[in-house]
Protein 1
Amino acid sequence: MAYIPAAPFLSPGDNSWQLTAATFVGLQSIPGLAILYGGLVKRKWAVSSALMAVYAFAAVMVVWVLAGFNMGFGHPLLGSLVGIPQPVLNALSEQGQASIPLLRGLMPHLAIPQSSLIYFQFVFAAIAPIILAGAVFGRMNLRAWMIFVPAWSLLVYSVNAFMIWGGGWLSQLGVVDYSGGYVIHVAAGISGFVAALAVGPRILKDQRDFKPNNMLLAVAGAGILWLGWNGFNGGDPYFANADAAAAVLNTNLATAVALLSWFLLDMFVNRKLSMVGAINGMICGLVAITPAAGYVDGTGAILVGLLGAAVPWFTMNRLGQRWPFRKADDTLGVVHTHFVAGAVGGVMVGLIATPTMVVYLGTHGAAGVGVAGLLAGNGHQLLVQMLGLVVVTAYSGAMTFGILKAISLFVPLRMADRELEVGDRLIFNEEVFELHHPIPVPEPIDGASEVGGHAAPALS
């Protein structure tokens, strides 16, 4: 076989890491969140919760290459609000050199092909609606979900991505989001809260008793989520450089601190240990460090982990039954673990970001960009971070409400009453594990069908 050299611009190490990091992020969705959700919900909803995740991953892939990527990272359509919605199918075969508008002033092109960038950004786009799904388990009509996911991905996710990452007006003001604290978690958290309001609450029986059906399965999914996050934050410098390594270390440090913080708060304040609480703390740490991973040092990562867990713990355990949180039946507390944690991390960038952290330092000697927060003498960064939080929250919440109202004109947002009572077995004729044993049948008479020499079992 003839040796085909790499294109002159391409760094094999950077490209290998980018594809690996993207795969890690993809594993967070399937199987990570699908397994986590399947273990955390009641048994009768395990299949539908996993299916919502798998469907969203596939649906976003299609709309991403047809329009979403260029809406988030292409040439501007409406000033600095969104990119032109057009396909990127040619980029998948031409293997051109990747570039995104936000980085063009720093380095015109990256050391990876455009297809690597498209795939890396796809797995980010895919996980956002899967996170959102956690707020509406146990009652959202799956047909409505099938329409909602591609619409939300294009009209909410891609627009937020352009405003902050694609060279849009928020990025021009100086708002930064290292790996999706605002674009993914704040947007998904507030959208999930609004969706829970629009769809309505679970039936009373499910609200009163919604114990996890398989905690070990949930722990397995949570573990995939934690380790997959190394790709989430480690891939965002777009180079296999020192900042990628620092982001990975900060991610794990903040997550460990957050998990322990939630665990100890449960122990000493609630006087009750909980594996679900430990998972919530872990998720809050991962979410809170996401907007800050490459902008803070180790001390900053510890602070992000502490506050990233303590604040959501307080909102969930002390404010959960008060306005506005009690207005929505948020099944898995997405508004706390994603919206609140993402907001804490994003605002803390404006407080403790240190310019000694080098971001987007290329392999060819391109200059780095450091972000300084208030404690480093840059109060402006805190102001723009708070502005970015308000804009993403308001836009995502309002657009989500509009999308759901439009869908409700054609498809009910809620399942039928009988489906709400029975769950997966009625909807799919499938369950997470089979509890019903086949009814024994007599030995077959002459001419009856047999399987392996024995009577074929009756269908349950």
Protein 2
Amino acid sequence: MAASSRYYDGATAQVSEVGVRVTAAELIIFRPADSGIVARWPIADLAVLGDANHEAVPPVVRRGGEARLVIRDAELRRQLAGLVPQLTALADLPTPVGRRVATLGVTLAALVGLFWVVVDYGTEYAAPWLPYSLQAKLGESVFEELVADKDECHGKRGLEAINDLANRLARAAGYEHEVVVHVIEGGPVNAFTLPGGILVFYSDLIEQAKDRSQVAGVLAHEIGHVVHHHPIKGIARQYGIELLAKLVSGGYSDLLNTLTSGGNILLALRNGRAFERQADDTGVALLEKLGLRADGIAGFFEQMMEKEPKDAASAAGIWSSHPPTKERIDATKRPTTGRPAFSDADWKALRDVCK
């Protein structure tokens, strides 16, 4: 049995065109020109390096040696594979490229799905166990970053009023730590929650509210985010998503840059529809538990709809981070019964908190 093959002696860079034949005891490598013997390899010492999926032609070697034999003739490889059990891999056909790509794609999708499950459920159950001192430190750092170029309001009586209500709501939910509310002068008409029970209200929201129940409703909603640990879950989830993207793309980032660059902070603090619904439900329940008017959340959303009839959340569909406003109004609609959340004096002080 003879055919054109290549022999690498493993000692020099020289490549020899050789013939190959096999006997019961050995593989004989010879020069086709004069049939001179180049090497005799015992059958028991033969092995194949690699496989057809990673090598165009897997080389045959003698265990313990550096020399390699590349048999280019496919028919000869199949014959040798049938005669010598150790050379079975020579007969393997490479997996079609399309199938290999499909397999890789399915594997990658499965890994991404598994990673997402870990990120999603891991942040849901593990993030709240992060020590409160670390959550508070993170919240303070993010607060300083976000409001560095803005003016904070310092009206003592107004801040006392909103902080007193915030902590009453938090205690009603069994939250064990102090909540701190900051009021920032100007807009937008918005409020948000940071890790460690830090709340930020913009004064435009307080000034443009139709009544005190709306401000109490927004505050109760934000307390819902606090007691369910949504801020730290959101940051942990966003970092997990970024890590996933970096792993897939082969890139690298560190957690500090993730948390302190402005765009990433805002992205991480977006709560998502499930969190928003949970905060709405919790806010209404806490107001009712304290015997306070609980219609303010729906009232605030109705005012938003009056100003912007085209619901951006509804238009964005599944891509929206918030539920449709109409849905939130229907879910939080309550009668105008219950005590006012702020006394007349406290409400006036809160309205004047930036003066």
Protein 3
Amino acid sequence: MSARQPVIILPSETRSREFDAKLLLAALLAAKGAAVYVGARSAIHAALHRLPPSTYIAKDFRRASRRVFNILKDLGHSIVGWDEEGILNFNLQSYIERRVDAPTLARLDEIFAWGDENAAMTVASPGYHGQPLHVTGNPRIDMLRAELRPFHDPEVATLRQRFGGFILVNTNFGTLNHHLRQYVVDPRAEKASGGVTLTPEVRQSWEHRFKLYDAFRALLPELARALPNQTIVLRPHPSENLENWRQLLSGFANVHVLHEGAVAPWLMACRVLVHSNCTTAIEGFLAGTKVISFRPHVSDQHDHELANVVSCPTYSQAELVACLRAGAMPAPAAAAEVQWQAVAKNFASLTGALASDQIAAHMLASHDARLARAATRLAARARGQLHSRLRALHRQWVAGQESHKNSRSYEEKRFPSLASAEVDEKLERFRRLFPTMPPLAATASGKNIFRVERRPV
């Protein structure tokens, strides 16, 4: 490593989904001597013009990221990253249609894959041109491994004290129950909303999910009535409209509709997780939680295969209620060995070296060479400065528009305000789990942006 301190930019779009995992990566990078800007993606993007040349860790390579990638390249940053939704199962056609923009993928200098399946789809995607691709796994999976579960102990203890042995129901109906009305999908519409290309495959997927959404709306009141002495916590996806669920369940004292904090402690604190095609089933399985899938409608093409493999299936309200009432799990959908084989095919680094450690090592080993290649001429840097500032001004303007996806209120929903003291407390938890980790400090560099590095001696 050169004498010049490596600088890393590590944005997080949804605090409850991935911030703790990205803070783990930030801590391991900082322990190795880097300075890491970590925090809310929208806040970091608004500040790109004032951050030093760095390695930026991207969350995806979709069309929506193209403009930011262009700004980053003009400013002389290197771009590496992964697909945050690589935890999902897709066939190749669906993956390319939903997750890949060829010019955006081509901008990445290095890629980190969740596992062999994700790597194979990335290599087969338009825009991949032989960039170094490392099958490392992902920091979100690290946070569920046995050696890192104690990180979540304070939140787990609080949730168990608050709710007892509760049933956690996770939903993932953001397209059908979006917090912002104009992004709610109507499967029967002639045109798609939210910039989605309305292919026959996408329409069929929406229609299937709409059936599941209706089935969940019918299920939850019946579940509350059938299990009056059991506490049920409904935790919708971060993009969902919680009020719609609260209105549906307002008459039931044993049901709480909440979206608070990181998802991992909820998975570890609950008695059982109930879901339908939700990626939290995989995270729950890896955390050692009992997982049940509710499958009143089955689609070989549009169901999340891995989420169902790691779950015990129920196919009707009566079957699910009977299972929960008995306090026992139904017969496994597959033997444990088959489940773990399926998981290992999709996720690397379930044992051995942490994915975060491997990613940090790869990034720092090639950091100086990447940054030298990323260096740009004065005219390009001036263009990047201009476009970054104009983009920040535009985002500031739309922040006051409540119906916009970049509104201040919706951003607060995705990434609630975070203080340096909270980040420092989490860093100290990591240090207790990694005895050789040096003391680290988080310094605020704007709202919801923190510079993490070694604490000065």
